């Protein structure tokens, strides 16, 4: 796709502020992992790094905005597994994540966690399963919207267990989380990045992780399989991208500085508080990783019959 204009590379890059497009609203997982990284990059690059939230249509509005920006390295895209998921759900989105963008780094990896409101009386996964089986559609789960990662992972769980739990979609994670905390829905399949603080404060009760191994940062939370549920492998990763065609020296500079920023003690502490581990995909394998994830989640969303808003 011929999107944007490819300018000549500047040896003095960056010479002006850099914009990071977050294709979701403030307060969600992508936003939470972008802002601390942007602050560290600002110090390393010597220029302002501005976070630009452009939510809507499952993230595709913001991604398309970044896809139409010049290939000069001054516009970055912050996202994650949500972008490969959107490929099949929004066929007319106007871009392809694995062709119009070049991944800079996998910035964080977090498990997804099934959390419940403590007042719901769902003390463990077996209790939840028994109640849902005895009274189909009596329980509700909230998500950040139809076709989002929270929706897809919940539908994976429901397919594997044969349960019927009503889906209540919201416009963004922050709105869904507010209603979960208020008790307006009973549960949510959330990324640990937005649930960790609520778990630590006792506002949410974690029942199980939707990954194959326990998190070293939350060793007391069992995996779904350990808790008596299905074997699920559905974690969340976050990433930074630039436009395909960005000058190689700029891409290499960004990759070096992102690694330095992620290794800073302040970011290490924040990532731990958010229940995250740093990404470990080497630069040479980033393109293949994104392509594999795009194929995997596209096939899964299709098989589940998930539809976007």
Written overview of the protein:
This protein is of the alpha/beta class and 309 residues long. Helices cover 40% and strands 18% of the residues. The protein contains eleven helices and ten strands. It has a five-stranded mixed beta sheet with strand order 2-1-3-10-4, with helices on both faces. A three-stranded antiparallel beta sheet has the order 8-5-9. It has a two-stranded parallel ribbon with strand order 6-7. It is globular and about 65 Å long.
Give the helix/strand layout.
Blueprint (H helix, E strand, L loop, with lengths): L17 E5 L6 H17 L3 E5 L6 H8 L7 E6 L1 H8 L7 H4 E10 L1 E5 L8 H10 L5 E4 L5 H13 L4 E4 L3 H10 L4 E5 H9 L4 E5 L26 E8 L4 H16 L1 H9 L12 H19 L5
Parallel strand pairs: 1-2, 1-3, 6-7
Antiparallel strand pairs: 3-10, 4-10, 5-8, 5-9
Helix pairs in contact: 1-9, 3-11
